[in-house]
Amino acid sequence: MRKWLNKSAAKRMIAFIAVLSIALGYLATQVNFSFKFERFFSSEDEDVALFQKYKKGQYFSDSRTIVAVELPNGLFNTETLLNLEAATDSLKRTLWVKQTMALPDLQYFIESPMGMVGIPYVDASQPENFEEDSIRILKTESLYRVFVGKDFNSTLVNVFSEFYLNKADADSLKHSIHSVFNHYGFDKIHLGGRQINQSVIVDKLKSEMAIFVSISVLLVIIVLYLVFKSFWGVVTPLVIVIGTAVWNVGFMTLFGKEIDILSSLIPSILFIVGVSDVIHIYTKYIDGLRQGLEKSEAVWKAYKQVGMATFITSITTSIGFLSLILSGIAPIREFGIYMALGVMTAFVLSFTLFPAAIILLPKPKIVLSRKKANIWDEKMTLLYNWVIHHQKAIGIVSISLFILGVFGTSQLKINSYLSHQLPKSNDVRKSFTYVKENFSGMRNVDLFATVKDSSKSVLDYEVGQEFNRLEHYLKINYEVGALISPASVIKQTNQAHLGGQPENFIYPTREDFSALKANLEKAKKKKFIKSIILDNGKTGRVTGNMPDLGSYINLQRNEKLLEFAAQNCPNLSVKILGMSHFMDVNNLRVSKSLIKSLGLAFLLISILMAFLYKSARIIIIATIPNVLPLLLIGLIMYVMGIEIKVTTMLIFTIAYGIAVDDTIHFLGNLKIELNKGKELNDAIKNTFKTTGKSIILTTLILFSGFISHGFSDFTSSSIMGILVSSCLIFAVIIDLTLLPVLLLWLPKSNSNNKVLK
User: What's the farthest any 2 CA atoms get from each other in the chain?
Assistant: First the structure.
């Protein structure tokens, strides 16, 4: 580095980086946004492969948009019913809409000499029958709280489209639905479903990505100015971190990576993390200038003093992120890889662009201010003296917090809610609540059961009984509003055979079943029934809607369901499929893999510490101040009722990778002080005064950046911002209190000094 610490070499370096930045900056503007939950599923999962098979046949409801329509004049109103029928008919002719399912489309059947006769559940032209119709709907489990709200003041319309619509087409569909219902006088509608969620989340990703990068820039500018009181002291570090973020997004575009809900965090996190290297270097540079050194010598001395520590912290932070490659989930692996790449990019720019800029720029005015430096020395000396006089208290408090942290963290359970993936203030999330309160919920339950005996079909009497048992079990244990299955097809056919009354929606006796066979064969050919009876009658689907009770409860229920099926449905091989289920499974699987990733990060960083210091004692001393903040985060989560899911588990990996940097900088500077021949006590004191200042400043910037994410509309992003920023505060407090105490408690011998040298 020293060879090119001159103006000519500095100009060439800046020109080269500028050209590269323009190219990567252009690529960054071409980045695409993605909303594909399937990428969070393991491609090696056999159930996922089966899901993909049936999905192609449109057997899943993920292509469904739910429209909950408020009816101010109630359902049983002629004008309301006519407008509702006209609206659904209009939707069927709308671009992207393949099919609708709403109350005007639904009929019950009566068997007659002329065959099956369909009768509407409610007829707008016959208001005299409204009372009788309302009683029938109340008694019909497939209607009440499924298509008709609990108070008859709302109705639900299912709109089916292509399985995958891009963002523009999904927006077009959303606009069409609003236009149609508004045209027919329905001003209050609530939308939900994959297509709508996509539109909302992608829009929010774009806006929040821009907002939080802007907030991070503003906060960094403010802190840098307050610290350095210099225009170039603000601009130069700012260019470094902006360049880091731009380069990283450019690399993402270059390698075909799209921005998803997880990778949208990368630019703002990199912006925050990247500035820490610059702060340490710039602080040492100013100290050198105050000592009367020329710029080139001050730069060289700064990099000589903190360069190795900065390199090591970049490595440890990268290790923290790279540990995520243990995850079997592509977006998480990619998040770890690109974050690690970004951290090393920040390091490279800090060691190339930053010194080049310093050489060309004038000395900062803050160099002339000795008063500010003296204030820092005084404050850090006072803090150090306080630590020295309260060693026992610090030890006792630390042990107590460690025990509490272990307890709190051990009590955390893995759990997530589908609705929490949505912005908390958005209309779609409010729609979840509305549908939950008035209908049976938006969450799908999907079972696929294959007949084991190839000579039998799902419409055989005994097999149908087993599907009926599954239905009954789900209704009792899953809070399902209504279910559709081969058993319900048989019960509906039996109902028609017995006169069409709701009370006759029952599974037939064996004697009555034989009379239904001809009608069942006709039913199999209907388009809708084909989504229930699959694989030429060898596989049956059980599907319905339920409230979102969280993955923890759902997975427990599913385990018991499969046990029930194994014991009570000997003819069926039952699989639980569907997007909702896979998100639950994936949350559990990924959370466990992230625990392994965190363990790997601990191991690799410990190995690095062992290589640097060749002492088990120092490894323990360096580890404790970085484990304790994580345990405190676990304690906070326990107290606040925050559960483990993918995003909260990522907090631990991110926080550990960043928090360990302070410890390394402290130990690195301590090593320099010891190499000067100072005793351990004096070396710790000097390190405390110099490095303590830098880690406080970097923590302040990191805290400011992460806490801004606490205002995110995405609950997961908000929690991440609050907890990571809290962890960083805990880390700096512990590094400035417990770490010196642990070092002072080392046996005072020359051999121990040599460990750190």
Answer: 108
- Is the same domain home to 661 and 747? yes
Residue whose C-alpha is closest to residue 699's, from 272, 314, 80: 272
Residue in the block written with tokens 């970097």? 698
What is the distance between the alpha carbons of residues 110 and 117, in angstroms, rounded to a whole number? 5
What 8-state DSSP symbol labels residue 259?
B
Q: What is the dihedral of CA 105, 107, 112, 115, to 10 degrees?
A: 40
Instruction: Give the C-alpha separation, 425 to 421, whole Å.
Output: 12
pLDDT digits (tens, 9 = 90+) for 457-467: 999 999 999 99
Tokens read off for 756: 């750190």
**Average confidence (pLDDT) over 671-686:** 83
pLDDT at res. 469? 94
Among 317, 346, 368, where does a domain finish? 368
Tokens of 54: 């049936």
R_g over Cα of the chain:
32
Answer yes or no: is 82 within a domain: no
CB 548 within 8 A of CB 418: yes
Q: Are residues 722 and 661 in the same domain?
A: yes
Cα angle 742, 596, 601; round to 5: 45
Q: Are residues 379 and 320 in the same domain?
A: no
The CATH number of the domain where 354 resides is what? 1.20.1640.10
- Tell me how far apart the alpha carbons of residues 122 and 128 are, in angstroms, rounded to a whole number: 11
pLDDT tens digit sequence for 270-311: 777 777 778 778 878 887 887 888 888 888 888 888 888 888
| Rounded-to-integer distance, Cα 651 and Cα 642, Å | 12
Name beta bridge partners: 385: none
Q: Are residues 685 and 734 in the same domain?
A: yes
Please identify which residue in the block is written with the tokens 């399985």: 163
pLDDT at 144: 86
Dihedral (CA of 418, 423, 424, 426) sign: negative
Kindly report the backbone phi and psi dihedral angles of residue 193, in degrees, each rounded to the nearest multiple of 5, phi listed first: 125, 170
Kindly give, in sequence order, each residue whose CB lies less than 8 Å from that of residue 569, ignoring residues fewer than 6 positions away: 449, 466, 469, 470
Residue 67, SS3 per DSSP: strand
User: Distance (Å, rounded) from C-alpha 607 to C-alpha 625?
Assistant: 17
Helix (H, G, I), strand (E, B) or coil at 713: coil
Q: Extract the tokens encoding 395.
A: 């030890």
Q: How many CB atoms lie within 10 A of CB 578?
A: 25
Q: 601 is in which domain, residue-wise? A: 370-411+583-757
Residue owning tokens 């990619």: 334
In this prediction, residue 189 carries a pLDDT of 93
Counted residue by residue, the chain has a size of: 757
Over residues 319-366, the pLDDT tens digits come to: 888 888 877 677 888 888 998 999 999 888 888 888 888 888 877 766
Those residues whose C-beta lies under 8 Å from the C-beta of residue 304, and which sit 6 or more positions away, are none
Q: Is 470 part of any domain?
A: no
pTM of the entire structure?
0.73
Give counts: helices (H), strands (E), the chain.
25, 11
How many beta carbons lie within 10 A of that of residue 131, not counting itself?
A: 10
Instruction: Give me the pLDDT at residue 751, please.
Output: 45
Q: 110 Cβ partners below 8 Å, 6+ apart?
A: 116, 117, 119, 496, 499, 500
For 109, the 3-state DSSP assignment is strand
Looking at the structure, tell me whether residues 321 and 404 fall in a common domain.
Answer: no
Nearest-CA neighbor of 580 among 45, 205, 37?
37
